[in-house]
Amino acid sequence: MVKHIEENPNFIWPEARKNEMINNFIKPGLQDLCVSRTSFDWGVPVSFDDKHVVYVWIDALSNYITALGYNPDGQSGDLYKKYWPADVHIIGKDIVRFHTIYWPIILMALGEELPKQVYGHPWLLQGKDKMSKSRGNVIYAEDLVKYFGLDPVRYYLLKEMPFAQDGNMTYEHMIGKINSDLANNLGNLVNRTITMVDKYFGGVVAEPDVKDAIDDELINLALETSGRVEEKMNEYRVAEALEEVIALLKRSNKYIDETQPWILAKDETGKARLATVLYNLLESIRIASVLLLPFIPDTAVEIQRQLNASKTDWESIQSFNGTVAGNKVNDAKPLFARIDEAKKLAEINAALEAEAPVEQPKIDEKVESKKEQAKKEETSVSDGFITIDDFAKVQLKVAKVLECEKVEKSDKLLKLQLEVGEEKRQVVSGIAKTYKPEDLIGKYVVLVANLKPVKLRGIESNGMILAAVDDNTLTLITPMSEIKSGADVS
Length: 490
Fold this sequence. Notes:
The chain has 490 residues and is of the alpha+beta class.
């Protein structure tokens, strides 16, 4: 496995994911993986023991090849021969280990080729939290489309997911991006340009005969943008690719301010120069529409319809002459309306409240008044009890100690680097009088994972390790049997 990674440096991508796999799993030494489970009964049963079912990351991974018609006896189907090995597995960063360690080992054991690359993409967070049904903070795509439209949602999700870091999504941020990037930079540019062509030339694209040095910056950027977008996309840097197109749109808007077409239109002597300015704008927009086609296809097609563009293929944007003089543009129609943030948020909140499930009491149950409910809650708190909802707020996770060292100038504190699934956590814990750093490395502990970060002796601590104390004897709470880090404790 190590040899394959060394000989294929882009097998695990991005680089940070590769480093995680090598440093956190492969170098410390791979542990045996149990390929069956007894804690549930759904799944593929083990033929020789009816208490066991096959571990999901064995049968799920094999679907990549069995779905294509893989046959272990060597008579694999045409689809398998055509599509395997896969050019790339695009998967979430939390399952990189399964796809870059377990899966390749399974394929090697079968004597089959490995996928050429595994790209572990980051998460899209809601605020600062990972979206989770159990947390109740999931934002569903169909709801986003209902609130904002399909292309704006496509654009936002692609633009705000960084290459190797988690993206952060809020309704406020989405509204801001739609207004700035789509309504202003794109929509306003297209509308202004086509309106000016219609106003000053009756909608007919005029020949660009009178050029100026100021044109070169826009033209050169338009011609360079396709190469930059292609380069970014080849590395899955989708957000950065979109940023290149936005840069072209911003430069086109600046070009309008620099050339001031409305001033040129006041004098007949400026008409020829005006024709060139508008041609340059139309051509820049045409190029941008071709580049935007994979990202916001409905909008890109509408832009090309308004331009009445006849050349919309990739090859046509390698030169700055695809807009045909003599063609007539179609009527300008707004692509995106600016969103009033306050009104939109109020609309979303109203929809969420209306769709929130309400538990109805049974017919023979007495419906308690709010005062009675409050009194009951007050009594339960005063008695020292908490509800299951209170307990559910605490997130307990199994964590593996990767590194541990004493905190300088402290005889009580240890600084631990923990593996919590695919995540890394630094925790400062007052256990130095009981445990030596070297005794903890490789051990599994229980972590309170959703405590607010604090600083102890100037060192940030992101969580708390559970321990029991009896007559001044401190003992860490650890799983009785080996379990993967990141597992929930409940």
